[in-house]
Design brief:
This protein is of the alpha+beta class and 165 residues long. It is built from two helices and eight strands; from the N terminus they run αββββββββα.
Length: 165
């Protein structure tokens, strides 16, 4: 029985030695398969009116309403909304990382989510008005002599300045 156990141990040690020799020839890049991929965040983008082009500062974009998946950055990012005939809007987005513990996995969320933008209509430029020019006063006729202001002698009406009635 001792011989069987000793042969078994010898076989295991030979197999282990050959397998370890194989491990030493593995390149360091093969260990990359054990690294986890960077976390991504699913972000919902909405606007009023819908149909705006939404583009994140991380590069991803779509037409609202939509949802994009972006790599979770270490710092806040922005989402720019643009629609013809509306003023563009930029919304800041905070990244919230919740470290996991023994009972829950780590998670990454954004604030706000969904990201909403209220687009305001672009105000058309006011028409340029011509400057207001005051009207020229009519030329005043030279003052007539008081005798010329009296009614004509052949008038059927009596002269109001005279006391005759």
């Amino acid at each position: 029985m001792r011989r069987v156990i000793s042969f078994a141990l010898a076989g295991v040690s030979v197999i282990g030695a050959t397998s370890l020799a194989g491990c030493s020839s593995m390149s360091s890049t093969s260990w990359d398969m054990f690294k986890s991929a960077p976390p991504t965040v699913q972000v919902r983008l909405e606007s009023n009116p819908p149909g705006a082009d939404a583009t994140t500062s991380l590069g991803a974009g779509c037409k609202t309403p939509c949802s994009v998946s972006v790599p979770a950055p270490e710092v806040p990012f922005t989402v720019a909304f643009a629609l013809p005939k509306y003023q563009p809007v930029s919304v800041p987005v905070n990244v919230i990382r919740n470290p996991g513990d023994f009972t829950t996995p780590a998670s990454v969320t954004t604030d706000p989510n969904p990201i909403f933008a209220e687009l305001q209509p672009a105000v058309p430029p006011k028409p340029v008005r011509k400057p207001h020019r005051p009207k020229r006063p009519k030329p005043v006729a030279p003052a007539a002599a008081p005798a010329a202001a009296a009614p004509a002698a052949g008038s059927p009406f009596p002269d109001p300045n005279t006391g005759n009635r």
